[in-house]
Amino acid sequence: MTVNWRRNGIFIFIKMITEMMEIVYVYTKIRSEFGRQCNFSDRPAELHVDIVPDPSLAENFIEKNPVDVFIQVSKDMSEHEVNTERFKTETRGINHLEGGWPKDINSNDLEHTIRYRKKVEKDENYVYTLMQLGGLMEHCIKQNNAINIYEEYFDDQEESVERSEEPSSAKTINVFSDPNVIKRTVSHLSWHPDQGRKLAISYCCLEFQRAADNMSYDSYIWDMENPNKHETVIKPVSPLLCLEYNPKDSHILAGGCYNGQMGYWDTRKGGQAVEMPAIEVGHRDPVYKIIWLQSKTGTECFSASTDGQVTE
């Protein structure tokens, strides 16, 4: 042990060196407060407290061997999926040949068009409407005199935007497969005439001679927003090869069967046919096509079959 004293009373430096480590302690004090000189001496270690182990305390603890601790420091994250309402897009076009005829007027029928023209000309607002259209037409014609719509104004300038023709592509949105155990092919599709959100699909095995005895005859109406569950079941007496919506009454459907019969269904009355003509007056071969006629009643249609007959 080394003791350094300073006469002017600023500090005392004490340095103790042991076998295992070196301890340095600096103590600063005014000399007048020192009092008596400190005497240090070496003596053996003394034991003040001795706590004896208690084996009964071991019963309060459980020994873990080995001890594995896992710590996850990453942030908690969650994933959610939501089936939102489908965005509806549609493309419409028109081939305008003459006049806009009402839905119940067949423009190809000369007698209907003449009768409808005479009816419109007798209307009191007919002359007034023509006078209004005349002013609008005159305004459009005068615009053509100010601007030549056929003149090319930018022939001398190079195209700044490069046009890239992308190949046509299609994306699968929904798959409406046969829900029965024995799968069948789709023989015909018919869109709902008003909403376009429903689709009538007829399912049929085209290899009739190889069809199983327990194969289902049912066809279905699907909702485009819910492809997992069909909306209505159409139950025919024979497999359906075609199924068509009535364009004037969206609740009525007509279907052509494999046995040559035609059936009529009303979705408001369930899946059973509301009318099924006798098989004797039907076709001798399967009915492959049905077309509704543009008539006043909207209840007439044509059917075609491979037997060479077209019936009404």
Automatic annotation (TrEMBL):
The record's subcellular location field reads: Cytoplasm, Cytoskeleton, Cilium axoneme
Q: Name one GO molecular function term.
A: dynein heavy chain binding
Keywords linked to the UniProt accession: Cell projection, Cilium, Cytoplasm, Cytoskeleton, Dynein, Microtubule, Motor protein, Repeat, WD repeat
Give the domain of life: Eukaryota
> Where does the protein principally reside?
cytoplasm
**Chain ranges passing through the membrane:** none
Q: Which InterPro entries match?
A: Dynein_IC (IPR050687), WD40/YVTN_repeat-like_dom_sf (IPR015943), WD40_repeat_dom_sf (IPR036322)
Q: Which SUPFAM superfamilies match?
A: WD40 repeat-like
Q: What's this protein's family per the entry?
A: Belongs to the dynein intermediate chain family.
- Per its record, how is this protein called by name? Dynein intermediate chain 2, axonemal
Q: Which organism is it from?
A: Scyliorhinus torazame (Cloudy catshark)
